[in-house]
Amino acid sequence: MTAVEVAAVGESMVVLTPAAGVPLETADRLAVTVGGAESNVVAALAGLGHRTRWLSRVGDDPFGRMVTAHVAAAGVATDLVEVDGRARTGLYAKDPGPDGTRVHYHRAGSAATRMGPAVLDDARLAGVRILHLSGITPVLSRSCRALVEHAVCDRPVAGALISFDVNHRPGLWPARRAAPVLHRLADRADVVFVGLDEAQRLWDTRDPHAVRRLLPGPRLVVVKDGPVAATALPRADPAVRVPALPVPVVEPVGAGDAFAAGFLSGLLRGLGTAAGLRLGHLLAARTLAVAGDNAPPADRELLDTLVALPDADWARLDPATAGILPAPAQTRSSR
Q1: Domain boundaries, given as residue ranges, for the chain
Q2: Which of 50, 67, 164, 331 is the most core-located residue (most Cβ within 10 A)?
Q3: 1-158: CATH homologous superfamily?
Q4: 84, 165, 257, 293: which is the annotated catalytic residue?
Q5: The whole model's pTM is what?
Q6: Are the CB atoms for 38 and 8 separated by under 8 Å?
Q7: In which residue ranges of the chain is pLDDT below 50?
Q8: Three-state SS across the chain?
Q9: Among this protein's residues, is 204 annotated catalytic?
Q10: How many CA within 13 A on the CB side of residue 118?
Q11: Are 223 and 233 in contact (CB under 8 A)?
């Protein structure tokens, strides 16, 4: 059996979204989908042809079966997902508004909060090249924090690069409490993704190089500055900055996960840092143009063609006319 390239650990939940994009309190119809930062990443990677696996725990309930089936349908192996007969599957609701989308969580005591370090001590993880985690998991419970600490400190998946997306969720824990925990975990990882807005909120760092100085441990730190650019800062080599693409935004949730998937795909394929950043931007653009957390898989040949463009052509690239955005895309101006 061919070894899995990327495994990701974390909670995925049922997502309730007002079907017409109206505030939650006035909605008369809700779309039911599935979302989770870590499973979003491996689903996007599977769409690019990579072999991936998702590790988690769900309740023995219809929502748990829905979540697992949704992730599996994206081509992700779910054989290590545990089913808990004593806890329910979590869910969250999106609440669109003029200042952005708020998220209301209903996940306290969910099955996934009962995960612990033993999740990673499985022989079936042998040969995994990248283990992806996020800063959402350590806030879910003490055992979940112990799981992430086990991953980054004890390295139970031998030979795997540890990829860590800071992914601070203010609705789950305030910055003052999250800052030292997320700093410690990020600095123990190999590849770190962090938004510049997150870094400012957590650590009062205001430029990518300041973030790199704050995190000297990782081999590579990738700082995302929203619609402006993304900068990769290796430990020794010069920083690489790639401008973002102009994209009309339907829904921002999930775009960071898509970016991480694109960059990790470039890393797995040895495409180089700049190409990885470009691939991240392309996948993020697709996700920004849809209402859900995941965009349909893109044509890999088209992606590779766009990634290889000369710098001047990349700077002029319009994702809509390049055929990179899912169709039809009902878009509104970026918030």
Answers
A1: 1-158
A2: 67
A3: Ribokinase (3.40.1190.20)
A4: 257
A5: 0.92
A6: yes
A7: 329-335
A8: CCCCCEEEECCCEEEEEECCCCCHHHCCCEEEEEECHHHHHHHHHHHCCCCEEEECEEECCHHHHHHHHHHHHCCCECCCCEEECCCCCCEEEEEEECCEEEEEEECCCCHHHHCCHHHHCCHHHCCCCEEEEECCHHHHCHHHHHHHHHHHHHCCCCCCEEEEECCCCCCCCCHHHHHHHHHHHHHHCCEEEEEHHHHHHHHCCCCHHHHHHHCCCCCEEEEEECCCEEEEEECCCCCEEEECCCCCECCCCCHHHHHHHHHHHHHHHCCCHHHHHHHHHHHHHHHHCCCCCCCCCCCHHHHHHHHCCCHHHHHCCCCCCCCCCCCCCCCECCC
A9: no
A10: 4
A11: yes
In DSSP terms, 82 is beta-bridged to: 57
pLDDT digits (tens, 9 = 90+) for 80-124: 999 999 999 999 998 888 887 788 889 999 999 999 999 999 888
pLDDT of the residue at 228: 92
Q: Which two tokens stand for residue 293?
A: 């957390």
pLDDT tens digits for 136-163? 999 999 999 999 999 999 999 999 999 9
Q: Report which residue type is found at 29.
A: R
pLDDT at 331: 36
